[in-house]
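Box 3.1 A note on notation
Throughout this textbook, protein chains are presented in two layers. The first layer is the amino acid sequence; the second is a token string describing backbone geometry. Keep the layers aligned when reading.
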Amino acid sequence: MNHMDVEAQIISVSNRDEDNAFAKEVAEINRCKYVKAPTANELRMALKASLFSVVLWDADHKNTLEGSAPNSFQHIGQILRQFSLPSRQVFVITDEPLNKTPYLFNYPAFDHHIYRRYDPPAAQLFGYLAKASLWTEVQFGLEGFVPPKTDIKKLVLKRSGERKPVIQAIENILGQKGVPPKLCVVASQAIDELLMNAIFDAPVADDYEYRRHLERTKDFELLEREKAEIEIAVSQEYIALSVTDFFGSLKKEAGLAFIRKDYEVKELKVKEVESSGVGIYGIIKSGLSLLFLLRPGQTTQVVIFVPMVKNFKAFRSAVRFFSFF
């Protein structure tokens, strides 16, 4: 199924008014059914009605870790396991970063995390993400995550030395669109991290990362598959920027480990040369939202979303999420 229809439903597993209002708005945007199911039994009934569902799950309420509670983490998780709902259709909602809620990683049945911040453009963005979560295949490109008719600019890096001029150009574009100066720097640094990953960390041959050991200032030609692609889309409420590589070497499990900053895992230890894991964790810590579009062994596209805010203080309280497809 590649689009929503009348049978699709948004299920809100929450007793919080703001969560339910948000879920209802996302359902209305996608013209699908809204279902409130705050307990395990109600979730079971909703999923029996249709597995063509997106679950928005309040995962850090006061009874989360109380096994006897009908809305506990254990009970909700059990229902999701019972129905084998794909993790791409599950969004967890918390007030705290995921590394403050480690119990969630004991049951990795979700591909999306929402910080409980629902000011615009949250509903619009999650309308696109909810729709995308019901696609049977990953759809690359920014078209599915920005309003229709949004102008999308694309450029291709053909040499590693083009990275710095491109980053400066992106910072200038953000400034011209009214993004606060400090946020321009944060966003351009994030794209720089993603470009370094695409140029130096992503290229592999026979499981060997043959560019990782190089100095990040080294200039060399990028062969056809090594070329990195950048997209920029400017809408009224946010700017989406993405970097794509054509090796597809980033795995979802590694991305989640970066988010936990679990560098004790052998393959994710910080190396002498800065790795993508450090960069991705830094982007998340900066407060930007991240969307990962993954096709293992073929393509990785990472998108950051920059909200159109008046100042950096407003950015700190703006919509924030990460998402894997």
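The radius of gyration is 20 Å. DSSP finds nine helices and eleven strands in the chain.
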